[in-house]
Design a protein that fits this description.
heterodimer; A: alpha+beta; Aldehyde Oxidoreductase, domain 4; seven-stranded mixed sheet; 27 strands; disordered N terminus; B: alpha+beta; Ubiquitin-like (UB roll); DNA polymerase, domain 1; 2 domains; five-stranded mixed sheet; 5 strands
C-alpha cells in the first residue's frame, strides 16, 4: 500500500519527551524512544463510512469511535479500560465508544509482558536490569506475540493508545482548520467536536472523519498531563456489561456456523501415555456420528480420541461406545505420596539456584538469639474456568479459520497452521469473549486438536468442546510446591537473617517445552518460581532465597498470579510465626520492617485501619474469631488484606470479612479495580479453602466441581476494597494482584483464632 | 421428534428423549445464551426456568419436560421481574467474564419471583451457582437492589 495515506501512518511517531511530560515518567525507559506502533495493519477491516486513523481506532461518519482491542477480554474489563485511554486524548464522549477485537498483527504485540519476565526485583533500576528488560522488550516487539497475561495490558497500552487518540485528534483538528480556512491553533476539541474558537463554529468528529483520516499523521503528539484527565481515574460503566447481562455476549463455545459439526474428546488419562488399541466400530454406528479421529500426542497436546457428530451430546455419548485401551507408559505409577517424598528429598538436598543472596546468612544464623523454622506446602491446582476448553476450526481450500477464546491469538495462528499443515498466513483467527482465562487459555492444546480434527474433515466447520472432566484432568496445573523457611532473630527480636528454599516445577519451562520444545532447558532461570519470595519489601539484612527445580510428568502452567500464588503464602504465613516468636503483633512486626518502603507501609496501614486492626472481634458462643493480615507486591501493584475468620467446634471455618487495600499507582477505572480485587480474593480463597489436585496411578483423581470445589455465594465473605493512590507514574496491574495475599491472610487469621500455625493448603482449621 | 415449548414457542427438536435439555437448546435450537459448565448440575451455568422454577438444563432429559414451559435467557424479558433485575445487574456492574451470568440471572429471577424481598439467608440457600470471577458480592447487591425496586412497584 506504498504511497497511500494509510502507509504514511507507518512513519515513526515520535512521542516527544517534552511534550509527553509527566507521562514519560511512567514506564520509565520503556517509551523513551520512537515507536512504530501507530501504523495500520493490513488485516484491520473498516466498514463502510468508517475512517481508519491508525492501528487503534476508527471513526464512523455517525461519530462512533471504534477502538481496536489488542488484548482479550476475560473478565478484567480490558474492553473498557483501553477505549478510555483513547477517548481521554481524543476528547470524545464515552457514549461514542465501541470496541472491536484487533486482528492478529505484530503491531499489537505485548512487549511489556515479556519485559516483566526478567528475574530482577521490581525496584531494581540498575543498568543491568534495565538493559535486560529493554532487550526482552525489543525481542518481544520483533517476535510480535499478542498475548494477554501478567496483568500487563494497561501498562503496555498506556502510552501508545493515548498517543493513538492524540494523533487522531490532531488530524481532526487539522481537517477542520483546513475546511474553515483558519489556523489549527485557533481550534479546540470538546466532546467529539472540533470548535473554531473565533467564530464558535463546530464540526462533529463523524463529519470530519473521512478527510481527517486521509491526512498526514503528526510526527509528534503532546499527551495530556494527568491533571487534565477528564475520564481516567473516574468510575466508568463497563462497555461489555450490557451484553453480559442479557445472554447476548458470545463466547468461543457459542460459535455457530452453517453445517457445523461437534466434537467430543477423551484424552489418555495417564500423563505421557498413549493409545494402545481402539475399536470404534460400535461408536461409528451411533446416531449422528460423522467420524472417529485418533490424535497422537504432540509436545502441545496429549494423546486422545475424538468423535465428531451432528451434536455435542451425541458425540459425547458415543465416546462411551469406544473400546479404548490406553498404555500408561512410564508414569503410570505416579502418585501424590511418591511425589511428596521426592519433593521432601529435594528440599533437603536438591541442587538449588539462588534468586537472591544478600549479606552473610551463615554468619547471621550463628549469632542468632532465636531461630524460627517451618515447612509449608501447597498442592497442584486446576484453573477450572467456567467455559470448558473449546475451539472451532474450518479447513477449506488451503485456508484455516479458527475461533477460539484465547489469551494468545498469535500463537493460535502459528499452532493452528502447524496442526492443519498450512502456512501461518493461511490462518485467520477470530477471538470471541473468554469464559474465564486465568492463564489456562494461554495454552494451545485445544487449538491444536481442533485444527487437526478440522483438517481431517475439510470443508466442515468443527467445534471441539471438552467436558468438564477433561478440563479438570487435562489442565496445566499450578505447581505443587514445598518450602522451607528459616529465620534468625536478634536479641531485640528483629530479623537478622532470612533463608528460603522452595521446591517445584517451572511453569515457564513447561510452557516452553509445549510450545518450543527445542528451546526448553533446565538452564532457563524462571523468575516466576521465586517471585514473591526473592523480591520482598521488608528490611532484612541477610537473605538467601533459592529454588530447586523439580521434574515431573504433570504439566504445569500459569495460574492467576503464578508464583506469587504460593510464595505469598509461604512468606506471609511464616512471617506471623516469626512475629509470634519475637513476641510482636504481626501487623506491627511488618510495619517496623517497612520504613524503607513507604508505599508498602501505607497500603498495610490502610488495610489495618479500615479493618479495625487491634479492636476486639465479636464471635458467637463456642466460636473462636481471628484476624490475619498479609502483604504482597505483584505485577507492580501492592496489596494488603485483612481477613476475619470464625472457627467453630470441630474446626468448621468461615471467612466472614476481607478488607483489601491496593496501590496500583492510580486506578484507571476505580470500580474495575475494586471488582478485580474481589475477583482475585474469591479465586484465591477457593484455592485456600478447597483446591487440591491429587494423583493416583498417573492420573488426576478429581473430575468436576463435585470433588474440585470452589467458593460459592454462601461461603463468600463480605469484601471491602480501598484504593491507595500514589500516582500515575506507579501504574501497576490489577487482574492478578488481589490473589496472592488472601491465602496467608486467612491462614494468619486461623493462627490468631486457634494458636496453631497453618502450613499447608488447602486450609483445615 | 420431541417438541418443546421454549420462550412461549413450540419447537421441534431432532434429538432423542434422553438428551439433556441443555444440548437441545444450544445445538438443536441455537439458543446459546444457556451455557455448559459441568454437565452434572454442580455449577448452575445452564440454569433455565421450567414452569417458573430454576432447573439445571444439563441434567433435565427432554422426555421429562415436553408438557412444560421453558424460559431461557433469550426469553427472560417477558417475565415481570426481569427488567428490574437486569437494570440492577448493570447498576452494580456485576459481570466480569460473563460466562456464568445467564444461569446466575435466571436463578436470581426465580428467587425474586418465588420470594419477593429475599434475605441474605434466602440468597445463600437459593443461589448456589458457581462464578469463577467471584461476582458473588455484586450479585447479592443486585438482588437486593432489584427486590427494593420491585417492592416500590
Amino acid at each position: 500500500m506504498a504511497g497511500t495515506p494509510a502507509s504514511r501512518l507507518r512513519r515513526r511517531l515520535l512521542i516527544a519527551a517534552g511534550a509527553a511530560g509527566g507521562a514519560l515518567a511512567i514506564g520509565g525507559w520503556l517509551f523513551y524512544r520512537e515507536r512504530d506502533r501507530l501504523r495500520r495493519p493490513a488485516a484491520l477491516a473498516a466498514l463502510a463510512g468508517e475512517a481508519v486513523f491508525n492501528a487503534w481506532l476508527k471513526i464512523a461518519s455517525g461519530g462512533t469511535v471504534t477502538v481496536m482491542i489488542p488484548r482479550q477480554e476475560m473478565g478484567q474489563g480490558i474492553t473498557t479500560a483501553l477505549p478510555l485511554l483513547v477517548a481521554e486524548e481524543l476528547d470524545c464522549e464515552v457514549a461514542a465508544l465501541r470496541f472491536e477485537q484487533a486482528p492478529v498483527d505484530s503491531v499489537y504485540a505485548n512487549a511489556t509482558l515479556l519485559a516483566d519476565a526478567v528475574p530482577f526485583r521490581p525496584d531494581d533500576h540498575g543498568w543491568f536490569a534495565e538493559t535486560a528488560r529493554l532487550t526482552q522488550y525489543r525481542f518481544a516487539e520483533i517476535l510480535g506475540v499478542q498475548a494477554t497475561g501478567g496483568s500487563s495490558s494497561v501498562r503496555d497500552a498506556w502510552l501508545v493508545m493515548r498517543a493513538a487518540g492524540a494523533a487522531a485528534r490532531a488530524m481532526l483538528l487539522a481537517a477542520a482548520a483546513k475546511r474553515w480556512g483558519v489556523a489549527v491553533a485557533d481550534c479546540r476539541t470538546e466532546a467529539g467536536q472540533v470548535i473554531d474558537s473565533g467564530s464558535g463554529k463546530r464540526l462533529a468528529y463523524g463529519e470530519l472523519a473521512q478527510e481527517a483520516g486521509r491526512l498526514e499523521p503528526p510526527s509528534r503528539v503532546a499527551l495530556k498531563e494527568p491533571r487534565q484527565f477528564r475520564l481516567l481515574g473516574r468510575p466508568q460503566a463497563r462497555l461489555d456489561v450490557p451484553a453480559k447481562s442479557d445472554g447476548s455476549a458470545r463466547f468461543g463455545i457459542d460459535v455457530r456456523l452453517p453445517g457445523m459439526r461437534y466434537a467430543a474428546i477423551a484424552h489418555c488419562p495417564v500423563f505421557g501415555g498413549r493409545l494402545k488399541s481402539l475399536d470404534a466400530e460400535r461408536a461409528r454406528r451411533r446416531p449422528g456420528v460423522v467420524a472417529v479421529i485418533e490424535l497422537a500426542s504432540t509436545p502441545t497436546s496429549a494423546a486422545a480420541v475424538a468423535i465428531v457428530a451432528d451434536g455435542w451430546w451425541r458425540a459425547k455419548t458415543a465416546l462411551a461406545a469406544l473400546e479404548i485401551a490406553w498404555e500408561g507408559g512410564p508414569h503410570a505409577g505416579l502418585d501424590s505420596a511418591r511425589q511428596r517424598a521426592e519433593y521432601a528429598r529435594l528440599l533437603a538436598s536438591g541442587n538449588a539456584r539462588a534468586y537472591e543472596e544478600v549479606g552473610d546468612v551463615g554468619a547471621a544464623f550463628k549469632g542468632a538469639a532465636t531461630l524460627v523454622e517451618a515447612e509449608h506446602e501447597v498442592p497442584y491446582l486446576a484453573h477450572a474456568a467456567m467455559e470448558p476448553m473449546n475451539a472451532t476450526a474450518l479447513v477449506k481450500e488451503g485456508r484455516c479459520e479458527i475461533w477460539a477464546g484465547t489469551q494468545a491469538p498469535t500463537l493460535v495462528k502459528w499452532f493452528a497452521a502447524k496442526a492443519a499443515g498450512l502456512p501461518s498466513d493461511a490462518v485467520t483467527v477470530h477471538t470471541p469473549f473468554l469464559g474465564g482465562g486465568f492463564g489456562r487459555r494461554a495454552e494451545m492444546d485445544v487449538v491444536v486438536e481442533a485444527a487437526a480434527i478440522a483438517a481431517r474433515l475439510p470443508g466442515a466447520p468443527v467445534q471441539l468442546l471438552w467436558s468438564r472432566e477433561e478440563d479438570i484432568q487435562h489442565d496445566v496445573y499450578r505447581p505443587l510446591a514445598l518450602s522451607r523457611l528459616r529465620c534468625a532473630l536478634d536479641a531485640q527480636g528483629r530479623i537478622a537473617a532470612w533463608q528460603h528454599r522452595i521446591v517445584g516445577q517451572s511453569c515457564t519451562q513447561g510452557l516452553t517445552a509445549r510450545l518450543l520444545p527445542a528451546a526448553a532447558s533446565d538452564l532457563l532461570k524462571d523468575k516466576t518460581v521465586a517471585e514473591g519470595a526473592y523480591d520482598l519489601p521488608y528490611a532484612m539484612p541477610n537473605r538467601l532465597v533459592e529454588h530447586v527445580l523439580a521434574s515431573q510428568p504433570v504439566p504445569v502452567g500459569y495460574w492467576r498470579s503464578v508464583g506469587h500464588s504460593y510464595n505469598a503464602f509461604f512468606v506471609e504465613a511464616f512471617m506471623d510465626e516469626v512475629a509470634r516468636a519475637a513476641g510482636r503483633d504481626p501487623y506491627e512486626f511488618r510495619r517496623a520492617m517497612l520504613a524503607g518502603a513507604p508505599r508498602h507501609l501505607r497500603v498495610l496501614e490502610t488495610a489495618a485501619r479500615k479493618a479495625g486492626w487491634g479492636t476486639p472481634l465479636e464471635a458467637p458462643a463456642g466460636v473462636r474469631a481471628g484476624r490475619g493480615i498479609a502483604l504482597a507486591e505483584s505485577f507492580h501493584s501492592i496489596v494488603a488484606q485483612v481477613a476475619e475468620v470464625e472457627v467453630g467446634q470441630g474446626g468448621a471455618l468461615r471467612v466472614r470479612r476481607v478488607v483489601c487495600a491496593i496501590d496500583c499507582g492510580r486506578a484507571l477505572n476505580p470500580d474495575t479495580v475494586a471488582a478485580q480485587m474481589e475477583s482475585g480474593i474469591v479465586f484465591g480463597l477457593s484455592a485456600a479453602l478447597h483446591g487440591a489436585i491429587t494423583l493416583q496411578g498417573g492420573r488426576v483423581e478429581q473430575s468436576n466441581f463435585t470433588d474440585y470445589n470452589v467458593v460459592r455465594m454462601a461461603d463468600c465473605p463480605a469484601i471491602e476494597v480501598e484504593i491507595v493512590e500514589s500516582g500515575w507514574e506507579h501504574l501497576g496491574g490489577v487482574g492478578e494482584p488481589g490473589t496472592p495475599p488472601i491465602a496467608p491472610a486467612v491462614a494468619n487469621a486461623v493462627f490468631a483464632a486457634t494458636g496453631k500455625p497453618v502450613r499447608r493448603l488447602p486450609l483445615r482449621a | 421428534m420431541p417438541a418443546l415449548t421454549v420462550n412461549g414457542q413450540r419447537r421441534d427438536v431432532d434429538a432423542d428423549a434422553a438428551t439433556p435439555l441443555l444440548w437441545a437448546l444450544r445445538d438443536a435450537l441455537g439458543l446459546v445464551g444457556t451455557k455448559f459448565g459441568c454437565g452434572v448440575a454442580a455449577c448452575g451455568a445452564c440454569t433455565v426456568l421450567v414452569d417458573g422454577r430454576a432447573q439445571r438444563a444439563c441434567v433435565v432429559p427432554l422426555g421429562s419436560i415436553l408438557d412444560k414451559q421453558i424460559v431461557t435467557i433469550e426469553g427472560a424479558a417477558a417475565r415481570p421481574a426481569w427488567q428490574a433485575l437486569r437494570e440492577s445487574w448493570i447498576a452494580e456492574q456485576v459481570p466480569q467474564c460473563g460466562y456464568c451470568q445467564s444461569g446466575l440471572m435466571l436463578a436470581c429471577l426465580a428467587l425474586l419471583e418465588a420470594k419477593p424481598g429475599p434475605g441474605d439467608g434466602d440468597i445463600d440457600g437459593a443461589i448456589t451457582n458457581i462464578c469463577r470471577c467471584g461476582t458473588y458480592p455484586r450479585v447479592r447487591r443486585a438482588i437486593h437492589r432489584a427486590a427494593a425496586r420491585l417492592a416500590k412497584g
